[in-house]
Amino acid sequence: MFHKEGNKIILISFILVTTVMCAIWLLAVPQWLQITLSVLIIGFLFIILQFFRNPKRNIVLDDATVVSPVDGKVVVIEKVHDKEYFKGERLMISVFMSPINVHVTRYPISGEVAYSKYHPGKYLVAWHPKASEDNERTTVVINHKNKTQVMYRQIAGALAKRIVNYAKENESVVQGADSGFIKFGSRVDVYLPVDTPVSVKLNQKVRGGETVLAQF
Fold this sequence. Notes:
The protein is an alpha+beta fold and 216 residues long. The protein is built from three helices and 13 strands; from the N terminus they run H-H-E-E-E-E-E-H-E-E-E-E-E-E-E-E.
């Protein structure tokens, strides 16, 4: 199963691969070269298909938990000062995604979208300390029914050139549902109240929609 954001790229890739493969085997070139080029072309297509995959997840709705919005590795767990929305201290959990991770973004909690904004910016490597403030990004805040607000931020990396965000203000959303997509390597930061109990550790691998980051 593939994400809808990859439909156009996958179609173009199939056409390109088919055309190049036909050309390779029709041209009078050594067989070893034909085989080598064919393997490289098929490898390219495999990478594209893997990047846009959208596997089904076992999502268990739980209003007492905050789940990871994305697949990847936890690279930061620390208190930070949010300048954009809260104007104060929050607990930030950052998940870094490599190009081989699933890049679907999911809602970490159920609730109502209170804030959703896109910010143009730079393309620093995703793990750079200034990436969350200087890179292209989107910021989404969700009101939980327990009156807590959870914010998550999609951040473009050095390779990510497009962030897709489906969250719309005043819209009701469901934990684990598709909230967007980031094309190629990037990261997502989740901002919680500073006293929120954390359920993950640094360098832990997480799965979007399934792994619990924290509990209320």
